[in-house]
Amino acid sequence: MEFYSLSFLACSCFLVMFRGVGCITFKSNSVSQTFRVPVRKCEVGYDMLVLPGSTWTEGCRACRCDSDAGRICVGPICPTPYHPTHDDHCIQWSADKCCCERVGCLSYGVVYNFGEIYPKTPDSCEECLCEGGPGPEKCWRRHCSLRCVDAKQIRGHCCKQCVNGDNCSIPSLKGVDVMNNVATKNPLPVNNTRLVYSDTMPGLFYLCVCVDPGAAAMCFQNMAL
User: Fold this and answer.
1) Where are the alpha helices (DSSP H) in the chain?
2) What is the pTM for the complete model shown?
């Protein structure tokens, strides 16, 4: 009369974790043969697989991996099912600290939702993307778009500020000493015009207008009669 018994080999753990199979040996009084068969796994956290019999917690729920039923968790049932992002991004927990009621990114007292961009620090030149998931936050240097040519750096602001409003610079003009001509020393406010007279050519002047704040004004040459 033949008899059979089952036993896991040492290699099964490695295979279960990474391939989802186990090594099982069937033995009899006349033959011994090893087969690779599927073994049920449980997913925990961010794509981590554990073997049957493993235990872990999700908030205040106790969970275990069952070889037949898979994940089995005991504890309060939350309106929003547990997710690994709750561990690092839960902004508001229930009174019993079991269920996450709101997720997001908290930055210096301000809550940002997933998908929103927030400053890394109040006066930082870096911005970050609020997203759930493992790994470091994704940040980049903020792009400053200025609508003036005389912006000033002010403490507490990453980008320079247009303290004198939107304006344009006066470009280099033929016959005009841009460094010393009174009409070219100060920026030209947006939607304003200014006459700039030549320093070397009598009768020559320019009519300048600021239409593109932060750039050079448009100037048109004229001759006095």
Assistant:
1) 12-19, 85-89, 182-185
2) 0.48
- 207 touches 220 (CB < 8 A): yes
Torsion over CA of 98, 99, 101 and 107, rounded to 10 degrees?
50
pLDDT bracket for residue 224 (50, 70, 90): low
Residue 39 is predicted with a pLDDT of: 62
Please tell me whether residue 73 adopts helix, strand or coil conformation.
strand
Is residue 56 over pLDDT 90? no
**d(Cα 3, Cα 85) in Å, to the nearest integer?**
50
Burial pattern 69-105, b for ≥16 Cβ within 10 A else e, equals eeeebeeeebeeebebbbeebbeeeeeeebbbeebbb
Q: Determine the pLDDT at residue 146.
A: 94
How many Å apart are CA 39 and CA 188, to the nearest integer? 76
Spatial neighbors of 69 by CB under 8 A, at least 6 apart, are: none
Question: For the chain, what percent of residues have pLDDT higher than 90?
Answer: 33
pLDDT of 12 over the 50 cut: no
Q: Write down the pLDDT at residue 189.
A: 97
User: Where exactly are the structural domains of the chain?
Assistant: 5-38, 42-103, 105-141, 167-223
Q: Assign residue 67 a region (left: φ > 0; alpha: ψ between -120 and 50; beta: otherwise).
A: alpha
